[in-house]
Write a structure and sequence with these properties.
2 domains, seven-stranded mixed beta sheet, elongated
């Protein structure tokens, strides 16, 4: 028995109601509302409502495994606990009083809780499997699982938008610039996302807007700020970029990031940061009002078309500066476009809708996620072996969130699936 488990039992009323509840003093108790769980200092549950011997009481409730925990926690010296309407314990092992010496009613739950609930909780907490409920999740209704996954999608988007909120503060609520930074980070995928973000932060958006119709200057600006244009070149085009950047650098007092931040090791040439930078430059050159178009997009196809770009001529036969390669188009592939939509477009649209009070945009963001193909990685494959195939990216994002935030730390008491498992067989 833990205090968190007892709070869970009280909050969700997982105790027998076949017989009227009685306090240790023999008073009849009817719970109208258990109260709201308090995550801050003070009593565990706030604004509860109970009927005690036919008298209505409204106020706070404290929960302890043992009555003596009241003394252990020094509540008898704390005036914040003087106005409790009920003390809920599993085992009443000691008499207690408030800081003013008053005594209030105590409810001992030991005889009202089915012991099988403790067995199920122990099974979850002691499990060493991929997910704590692995051996019993098959008994959970699909609707319960679906509701939990829908909750996880929204929660994951909330987490992803945390950085966007920071950037909005940093950039004075300039959505265009924040979206540009988000896109840049997404272009870096995992290994180069920090470098891409630093590049975007260090390259003023107004310069990209000023020169957006001059493709070589856009490339000079980005590759120069990325640290790739510090030397002279034998080839005409990169030497032109070098010259243009030196002029821009002096004119606008620019400071490039370190070229050593970029990682090439174990990347396919198509994913080299130089190619992603060339594609990003082309996106800036070809696109106008990209953020507005993202907000107004009505379908996944609309979004995909926004990223229908290729690279400039030099990069058709290069993956890096100086090293020539076979001629090959290097347009953004559909899977990479889907990555951009998932990691940049969807979170941006979601938080924009939330901050603007436009729930339709939040719903549209989740809809776009539902239209994207399911991701495939080790964690998802393990989930699928337990629950069936994930249908789309919303499912896989939800499963990743559930695994990371609830299954690994065993927060089963905060999970709808865990709630169903624990509730099975209660004595109601």
């Amino acid at each position: 028995m833990t205090e968190n488990l007892l709070q869970f039992i009280w909050q969700h009323r997982l105790y027998s109601t076949k017989e009227p509840l009685q306090s240790t003093e023999g008073e009849t108790i009817i719970v109208l509302h258990p109260g709201s769980l308090n995550t801050h200092a003070g009593p565990d549950f706030l604004e509860a409502r109970i009927v005690l011997n036919n008298t209505l009481w409204a106020g706070n409730i404290e929960v302890h495994v043992k009555s003596s925990d009241w003394i252990l926690h020094q509540h008898q010296k704390d005036e914040n606990y003087d106005r409790l309407i009920l003390h809920v314990v599993y085992n009443n092992d000691a008499g207690i009083s408030t800081s003013k010496g008053s005594i209030f009613s105590t409810l001992e739950l030991k005889s009202y809780v089915d012991e099988s609930l403790f067995d199920r909780y122990k099974q979850l907490m002691e499990s060493n499997r991929f997910i704590p409920c692995e051996s019993i999740i098959g008994s959970v209704p699909s609707l319960t699982i679906q509701i939990q996954l829908e909750r996880m999608v929204a929660e994951r988007l909330e987490e992803k938008t945390g950085r966007i909120l920071e950037l909005l503060t940093l950039k004075n609520n300039n959505w265009q610039e924040v979206f540009y930074i988000q896109l840049a980070r997404a272009f870096g995928i995992h290994i180069n996302q920090d470098a891409f973000e630093r590049l975007a932060l260090q390259t003023p958006l107004h310069l990209k807007k000023k020169y957006k119709n001059q493709q070589p200057i856009i490339e000079a600006l980005l590759f120069g700020q990325a640290g790739f244009l510090s030397d002279y070149f034998d080839e005409a085009y990169p030497d032109l970029l070098h010259s243009e950047y030196q002029y821009l650098k002096k004119l606008y007092d620019l400071e490039p990031i370190s070229v050593h931040l970029w990682k090439f090791l174990r990347l396919r040439p198509a994913n080299f940061p130089t190619i992603r930078l060339a594609q990003f430059a082309q996106l800036i050159f070809q696109s106008t009002h990209l953020f507005s178009k993202m907000v107004n997009a009505q379908s996944l196809n609309d979004l995909e078309n926004l990223f229908d770009i290729d690279v400039s001529g030099y990069w058709l036969n290069h993956y890096t500066f100086r090293d020539e390669s076979a001629h090959r188009k290097k347009h953004l592939g559909k899977s990479f476009i889907h990555t951009l939509i998932s990691n940049a477009v969807v979170p941006s649209l979601f938080i924009y809708g939330k901050l603007q009070g436009k729930s339709n945009l939040c719903e549209k963001a989740i809809y776009f996620l539902q239209q994207l193909p399911a991701e495939s990685n080790q964690i998802i494959r393990k989930w699928e072996s337990k629950m069936g195939v994930a249908k789309n990216a919303a499912d896989t994002q939800a499963l990743l969130q559930l695994h990371k935030k609830y299954c690994i730390p065993k927060k089963c008491l905060s999970c709808g699936i865990g709630y169903h498992i624990l509730k099975q067989g209660d004595k109601k």
